[in-house]
Amino acid sequence: MANKKMITLPNGATFPANGFGTWKSEPGKVGAAVKKALELGYRHIDCAAIYCNEQEVGKVFAEVFGGDNPVVKREDVWITSKVWNSCGSKEEVVAACRRSLLDLQLDYVDLYLVHWPANWEHQGLPITETTMGSDADGKPLWSKTNTLQSKWEGMEECSRLGLAKAIGVSNYSSLILMDLLAYAKIPPVINQIEGHVYNQRPELRAVCEANNIHVTLYSVLGSGKEGPLQDPTVKAIADAHGVSAGSVCIAWALSTGCSVLSKSVTPSRIEENFAAEAVELAAEEVKQLDSLERGMIACNMNEYWGFPAHA
Ligand SMILES: NC(=O)c1ccc[n+]([C@@H]2O[C@H](COP(=O)([O-])OP(=O)(O)OC[C@H]3O[C@@H](n4cnc5c(N)ncnc54)[C@H](OP(=O)(O)O)[C@@H]3O)[C@@H](O)[C@H]2O)c1
Fold first, then answer.
1. Which atom of ligand 1 is nearest to the CA of 22?
2. Which class in CATH covers the domain with range 12-188?
3. How far apart are CA 51 and CA 57, in angstroms?
4. How are beta strands 164-170 and 109-114 bridged, if at all?
5. Is residue 272 lining ligand 1, measured as CB closer than 6 Å?
6. 0.90 surpassed by pTM
C-alpha cells in the first residue's frame, strides 16, 4: 500500500508527505534500503549529489521502474535531488542536474533543490570527497565569482529544460529567502530544513507559509544524535500508542502540515517509519511534544565545515 498522506503544492503538484532519505546510507546498503522503501509503499525518495550514492540508488530505480512489469511506475514516485555547494554558476547547476539524472537513471527529477545557500569553488563532476569544493581538511573554499542569484538562474534553467519538474531550496533562512523572492523569475516551491520536536522552526515555517513555500522537515528523528528518540515524553506517548519513539517523532512532524524525511538502512525501521503516518496523535499529545522545543541543531555543519551555516 502506497503512502496515503499527500501534500499539494501551490502549483498543483502533489506528493507524499512521508518521505524516505538517503543521507549517510552507506554504499552497499543504500540500494537495498531504497528498494525496501519502494516495495513497502514509500513514493517519495530524497537524494542529493553530495550523498555520493546516487549511482547505487539509480540502479534500483532502473530495476523497479524498468521492464514490462515494473514494481512501481516512475511517474508515481516523487524524487528529489540537490545541487551541491561547488556548483553555483548557471552552467554548473545545469551540468550538476544532468549528472544527477545520469546517475539516478532518470529523465527528470520531480524536485531539484539548492542544497545550501553557499557557493564553493567548482572542482568538477561528479561530486566526490575530493571534488566537493573544500580543501584537504574539508573546509570550504568559497567561490569568488558565483552568487546565490547565479545559482538560482541555473535552477530556473533546469526547470525550463524539463530536467526538474519543480525547483526549491534547502537550509534557507528567512532573510535569504526574501532576497531570493526579489530576483526569482520562477519562485521556489519548497524550503527543506531541519525540524524535529527539539527544533521545531515555527518562525521560519510561518515565513515560508506566508510566501507560498511548502516546508519539508529533515532529520525528524534527530539524525542519529542523542535527543528526540530518547526523550521520556516521546517514549511515554509511544508506549501509549504501542509504537516506537521514532513513529511518534514522524507523526508529530506530519502534524505540523509539513512533509517529512527520515532515513534508515535497517529493514524493520524502514517499515516502522513508513507505518508512522498512520499514527494519529491527540491534540493534547501534540501540545506535550510542542513543549519539548530546545533549539537542538542535529545536523550542524559547523562540525564539518568549521562554519556556522545553520539557517
Ligand atoms: N537538505 C539537507 O541539508 C538535509 C540534511 C539532513 C538530512 N536531509 C535528508 O533528510 C533525511 C533524514 O535525515 P537524517 O538522515 O539526518 O536523520 P534521521 O532520519 O532523523 O535519523 C537517521 C538516524 O536514525 C536512525 N533511525 C532511523 N529510523 C529509526 C527508528 N525508527 N528508530 C530508531 N532509530 C532510527 C538511523 O539509523 P539506521 O539507518 O542505522 O537504521 C540513522 O542513524 C536524510 O537522509 C536526507 O535525505 C537533508
1. 45
2. alpha beta
3. 11
4. parallel
5. yes
6. yes
